[in-house]
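Holo model, adenosine-5'-triphosphate. Inputs:
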Amino acid sequence: MNKKKGLWAIIKPINNYVKFSIGLSILGGVTSVISYVLLAFVLSLSLGGEVELFSLKFSFNEAFITLVFVVLLSFLLGYYPSTISHLGAFKLEAILRTQLTTHLAKVHLGYIITTGTGALKKVLLDDVKNLHAFVADSIPMIGRSIATPIASLLALIIIDYRFAIVAICVLVVGILLMSFAMKNTNENRVKYEQNQSDINKSVIEFVQAMMVVRTFDDGTTSFKRYNNSLDEYRIHLKEWFSSTKISSKISMIIFSPIPTILAICLVGIYFMANGTLEFATFLATLLISTGLVDALLPLMWVSNFIKKSSASAFRIQEILELPILNYKEDDKKLENFNITFENVSFKYENRDDYALKNISFEVKENSTTALVGFSGAGKSTVAKLIPRFWDVSSGAIKIGGVDIKDISNETLMNTVSFVFQDTFLFNDTILNNIKMANPNASKEDIINACKTAQINDFIETLPKGYETIAGDRGANLSGGQKQRITIARAILRDTPIVVLDEATAFADPENEEEIVKALSNLMKNKTVIVIAHRLTTIKDVEQIVVFDNGKIIEIGKHDELLKNFGVYSKLWNNYENSQNWDLHIKGDVK
Ligand SMILES: Nc1ncnc2c1ncn2[C@@H]1O[C@H](COP(=O)(O)OP(=O)(O)OP(=O)(O)O)[C@@H](O)[C@H]1O
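Output:
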């Protein structure tokens, strides 16, 4: 990866395209200036004048043929740099997307969750697109808009230095005015990009939270946030434009060809009147100075584009420099599938307090351990440390005696399956959504997994069966159905260890029965860690670990823990009361 930061460091992989495109566009700029000189010669010769340059006399035919040749060359050189830069831009886009996605795949999953989809989308799509546009459109312009003014000035100096002085004077006035017009550009741009990012976030929030929002109002509250960010954006743009309005208009006028041509005309007429200027020279200087001024506005545009693209390059590099999870390539052999937490402490980056404090417990192979505790006690954090969403702050998690940091990604994924509440289904067929757990599985294997996960009957009722599209994020399926599909994935993967969050959120009585059946099928003959919500389902498990405020406060079996009259018995009483309360209500209705 590039150690140096910045725009040029990030486009290094396509350096050859960049150099070639800039080189050709420099030649294009030079040939366009030469064609102006030749055009002046041809016009002058056609009017019966004489043309001499570096003691060489040109005939009309010679000048005309050279002009045709140079114009053709200039045309080709105007076209090819852009073709090359576009090819480079596509290559860069592919390289950056691959680099970003492969890097993000190795970054702690926790970072992805904390950063949020809005910010990542901006980098993966908008910033990469910005760099594509920079390479495709600005690179050819850079060569031409630098080479043309320099070649024009050189040509003016060679032909008649007095006109070079006039052109420089006009340019200096224009540049001074332009720099005044661009004052505070950087601060304004930072604010402008912040406004854009706010709009981005509020749009994503508006769309993603639509279901929640609609429950509380008609969407006006979150739409108001979107509207407010649009308003701020509009107000800032207005202020920015009005603060630079007059000076930018004046500099636009100065940078248009008219003032330079006027100045050259006035000075030229004066020199012709006192006999110190040939007509051909006058014509050539007029044409060249037009080209000179024409190249300056694109140069300003390019410099703006460079600043904007540098910000995008910086954001991309920030992601590419995120520390990655270090997986060991060479695996140590796992002796068994016991899971051990040894003095594990863990603190989320954005928090001061520890979410887990010195946790130690062991889960024996082929046994089930349930994690229970009040909300926020640390159960999900324990579960998410096993697939290394985050790495422990201190202590170690071991499988079969090997620290999970010393297990390769592939072995870890082939050893442990995770069934979490936030199921993700791709907008693909149900078959493919399940098959992703084991690409080598046959259709029969998939159907068997679905039967064990109690979802086969439902899938078969769908008009296209297994070929039905699950919808964006599984939108065409109910929560319980999605959950059973995730269970089918885990069954198909058939890993010796299963970590699962036994969610009840989506369960209506019928669904709940099927989910419980599916989970108990999944858990058969496995080493299981389950975040338990329905305490009745864990009455018979080998071990219950009770968490409170990030610490383990009790470990034991259901009956032992009840006798302790501690947190578990409190949780059990609460749970039983809630069940009774449910029955009581039903009784009332009767
Ligand atoms: N991504 C995160 N960033 C910062 N803090 C977090 C994050 N996730 C959880 N926490 C905090 O860590 C602590 C433990 O949370 P955790 O989700 O593990 O609890 P839990 O027992 O699973 O709760 P619940 O039963 O409600 O799901 C809580 O104080 C929570 O606020």
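The pocket of adenosine-5'-triphosphate is lined by residues 113-114, 348, 350-351, 355, 373, 375-381 (CB under 6 Å). The CA atoms of residues 42 and 65 lie 10 Å apart.
Archived with the compound record.
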